[in-house]
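To make this tangible, this section ends with a sequence with its structure tokens:
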Amino acid sequence: MPRDSYQPPYRLTPAVVRLVGEIGEALGRLRAESGPVGPRLRRDNRIRTVQASCAIEGNTLSVDQVTAVLDGRRVLGTPREIQEVRNAFLAYERMSEWSPHSRDDLLAAHGVLMAGLVDDPGRFRSGGVGIQRGEEVVHVAPPADRVPALVADLLAWLKATPEPPLIASCVFHYEFEFIHPFQDGNGRMGRLWQTLILTRWNPLFSAVSVETLTGEHRADYYAALNASNQAVSCTPFIEFMLAMVRGALWELIETEQGGEQQTEQVSRLLAAMGGTPLSTREIMRKLGLSHRPTFLYSYLRPALAAGLIEMTRPDAPRARNQRYRLTALGRRRTDPEGAGHGG
């Protein structure tokens, strides 16, 4: 039986509160201005989701190759990689069949995700397991005999918690990875289940590829997990994953609306830029921001995508001396009345 007193350790920081608000704004914009997401875009994002979640675990197939596999065409890839992709796509397609709070559904999903890849798909591990990065062991999971009770506690907490699903899904994802209930497939299951929780809360998330953005920041994903392990609190992971959710929603907005919308965050960035090229650190300081993922995915990246700011060194995006400046369009947005005056 689950313990009624079980409470995962975390706290709601100003960054968490801000990100939840920004995600709410993005969801509102999608509902009001985009309408239902088309089936083609939904499938394309599902393919990107599958490719990214598998790639985080080392699968080398590209989006084009994953598309070919799902279309029944031959690709150059190992049998295991092809099986991983097929399984993951089927698991995401079957999400509507599963309840986020059900132990049986959790096991069934693992059975689908890992069919033909492990000896006992759909069963909790029977031995010890650790997580290694390079030569360093970064996490030793709880003993196997504690796994059923720990999972029961976590599912009961998820069902009863008053936390909004945005936060609860992040907490679940981290705690699931900490428990590491299966011998293999824990990362893919954690990401699948967070998407399931979010989709049950808001169907728009069935077309949002949070996994793609997480895969693009794989090192930061693992760093957030490790930071939470060291802090004995999943707060760092909550902040990271909420930034990924916010960024994924913005990408969908850009796709649906052609990047024409300007958020309050982008307006603030433009107002802070001035006439001198600035580094990311300088812009963050002027905005009063300390949480880099929020800055990147709510401020900088949307402004770049909309053509409102540009890099001083576009040939070397990651250059240490990279700076950002307003484009002509950005200057018109910040000073529409005076943009036509002067030389």
User: Anything to note?
Assistant: The first helix runs from residue 14 to 34. Residues 338-343 have pLDDT under 50 and may be disordered. The longest strand covers residues 136-140.
